[in-house]
Design a protein that fits this description.
Blueprint (H helix, E strand, L loop, with lengths): L9 H15 L6 E2 L11 E6 L6 E10 L5 E8 L6 E7 L7 E8 L8 E4 L4 E4 L4 E3 L7 E4 H13 L2 H7 L1 H17 L6 E7 L5 E2 L11 E6 L3 H7 L7 H12 L3 E6 L6 E6 L4 E5 L6 E5 L21
Parallel strand pairs: 1-3
Antiparallel strand pairs: 2-3, 3-4, 4-5, 6-11, 6-13, 7-10, 7-12, 8-9, 8-11, 14-15, 15-16, 16-17
Helix pairs in contact: 2-4, 3-4
């Protein structure tokens, strides 16, 4: 089998891309996501193993290109034997150089229909409710803003009957919060939707593209070391970081113990990166200062003649 259900991850999907590319022939592997192009939108079906009952199921892969975004792999799995199903969206490209943050002001019900590509490492937030969907808590999805809210409502309602029996207080608080989430879908008041993805592979639709959307702010940022570790990558040190220690030394005086060249008494040498050396010996009051040239000997030499016209 090519895949073990849609939940097998990107590795299983990539193993089938070679066969799909050959089957595609001259037609592009990643077609545009457009309505009406039924031939292009037909998914590839691959027989695979159901991880719930270990029987045969069917995995469907749709390789598509989201307009004004990039290529994605939409995968789903269904088992006719036990009825188990799964679906997710994975990026078909690499992790981007910078992370991305989408901040959308939802002012009308039309904004709830905006297409959203949410990877599994993205974090979704609604600041007005202090609501957050943490990274890696859900699989990637090709959905809408309303679909993200509905998915959150379904997840919170799933164990409510058990909570009402075991902890009625917590269940009551969750019911109260669920009513607030459902009220958001009416858009009686504007709220903010934030999608933060350190991998840079999430997307919120701009219906006015390529024109600017006044309600949508897209911010690209440099990942932190913690975010890079979360993604399993190691950021290379930039040239600026390699220069920083030298800049620090230019403002620092290094001090180490030596002996006085006159009397061999213990002394201290102060050295700075400006290449000025000084020795100060407290025992006999001798002071020595000289400069050392820290560079290679030049091929040619200079003769300097100084004419003294007067003495002060």
């Amino acid at each position: 089998s090519a895949l073990g259900g849609a939940g097998s991850g990107l590795e299983g999907s990539m193993s089938a891309l070679g066969a799909l590319r050959e089957a595609a022939g001259p037609r592009p592997l990643f077609g545009p996501l457009e309505a009406g192009d039924e031939e292009q939108q037909q998914p590839a079906e691959i027989e695979s193993l159901c991880m719930a009952c270990l029987r045969r199921g069917v995995t469907r892969l749709l390789l598509t290109r989201v307009p004004f975004f990039r290529e994605v792999i939409v995968s789903s799995f269904a088992c006719d034997t036990c009825g188990w199903s799964n679906a997710e969206v994975q990026s078909a490209g690499r992790i981007q150089e910078r992370g991305v943050r989408y901040t959308l002001a939802v002012r009308a019900k039309q904004d709830l229909n905006r297409e959203v590509v949410k990877t599994d490492c993205a974090t979704a937030r609604i600041p007005e409710l202090e609501f957050e969907i943490p990274a890696f808590s859900q699989k990637g999805a090709l959905t809408t803003i309303e679909g993200i809210i509905d998915r959150a409502i379904a997840g919170l309602e799933q164990d409510q009957p058990v909570r009402k029996e075991t902890d009625p207080g917590v269940a009551g608080q969750i019911d109260e919060f669920l009513s607030k989430l459902k009220h958001l879908k009416e858009v009686e008041e504007a709220f903010t939707f934030v999608l933060d993805d350190p991998s840079g592979n999430s997307f919120v639709e701009n219906p006015h593209a390529p024109q600017r959307d006044e309600g949508l702010v897209v911010t690209h940022y440099k990942r932190s070391a913690q975010q890079s570790a979360m993604l399993g990558i190691q950021e290379e040190e930039s040239d600026e970081k390699l220069v920083e220690p030298e800049d620090d030394l230019r403002n620092e005086v290094l001090q180490f113990n030596t002996n006085c060249p006159e009397c061999n008494a213990p002394a201290k040498t102060n050295m700075k990166l400006v290449r000025i050396l000084s020795k100060c010996i407290s025992r006999i009051g001798s002071l020595s200062t000289h400069a050392a040239v820290v560079c290679e000997v030049p091929v040619s030499c200079w003769i300097v003649l100084l004419g003294v016209a007067a003495l002060w």
